[in-house]
Please model this.
Amino acid sequence: MSSTTTIKVRLSVMMFLQFFIWGAFFVPMGGYLSELFKGRQGLNTIIGQSYATHNWAGLIAPLFVGLVADRFFNAERVNGVLHLVGAVLLYHCSTVAEPGTLFWSLLAYFLCYMPTLALVNTITFQHVESSERDFPRIRLWGTIGWIVGCLVIAESFFGLLPFPILPGIDHAGATSFPMKLAAAVSLIYGVYSFTLPPCPPGGKGTPVSIGKLLGLDALKLFKDPAFAAFAFCSFLICIPLAFYYASAFDYIGKVAFGEKAGGVMALGQVSEIVFMALVPFFFRRLGVKWMLLTGMLAWTLRYSLFGEMLSVPSMLVLGIMLHGICYDFFFVTGQLYTDRKAPAEIRASAQGLIGLLTYGAGMLAGNYILGWWGDHIALDPSTSEGWRVGAKAFWLMPAGIALIVAVIFAVSFRDHSADSKNPKNP
Model:
């Protein structure tokens, strides 16, 4: 095996471990919290605030990476330290039984984890020959890691076959075990990170600009009405997105699939892989506007299925498998659009700004709104009956938001200059 191939294998293992950790505990966390705080007043708010910790951390992560990792220390070493500390913090989270303490503990953990999402990309880009050819293949192992994490916790192969990796643990997703497992893997991964190829700080000695780190120098793009409409709708569509990450696992488990829920949820990532490969095909034929609009409308359809078809498991599975369209058609297309609209000197800042608006501000708002809405309609997510009574009202809320955003986008976005089928573009 050549040294180049060996490095790619090592980086693929890095990606697998990185996303195994996240998928193993983040997907079932809503179900665990609904059991842990069952009967507590404001249960939905507790769940929403707990999930919001990763968004708060996501807002801070670019500053950490830009101020510390890019300027003072090797990226692989920073990655190792953050995962070792994160292992301790995540294990601590698994022992906490008070909402306030859990919020701060999860926030502390995600302040360690979220910067590593950028670090693994930095490490990969520095050690591949062709970023366009090699990075997608390596990053694919991250999605596989997420899927395997879900299957291990569910002890089910996509809800179809038994996958008894955890003998003696029943319904592991509703317990603190996923956090403990992810903490153990984080410990192993932290040590492994120190064996990765060296990645010296690329920004050493360069002046610090908080505005550039947050992507604020890309605000000039807002002078273009089409880009402004795209950015505004990107923020808004992430409000309903938060409902899926925080509540879908618990919902489908309670109303249809029980302890197999994690395995069924993993079908969403399988769909993501398939549609990721199809993005170039559709991008050339549909163009930017229809790709983005299709992604938004897919969110409306998914939540409508969740709200109206809770007694039809196959429709719930369809809703989950729409993830490839929901995610790839909107977010991947949005990244391509941003890359084509932004001048070369601010492309990184533009991507950072969109990330700040979506996974930062948009999902942060969404997690607080879902908590408020769940408590407003008196949803009891800790029982099957509670979900059956409240599912329609709960899920049609984000479906409505997604539909309104799609209408706003359809009316306000007029830009064909970045379509790949436009002859002016490569």
Summary: The longest helix spans residues 267-308. Strands lie at 156-157, 161-162.
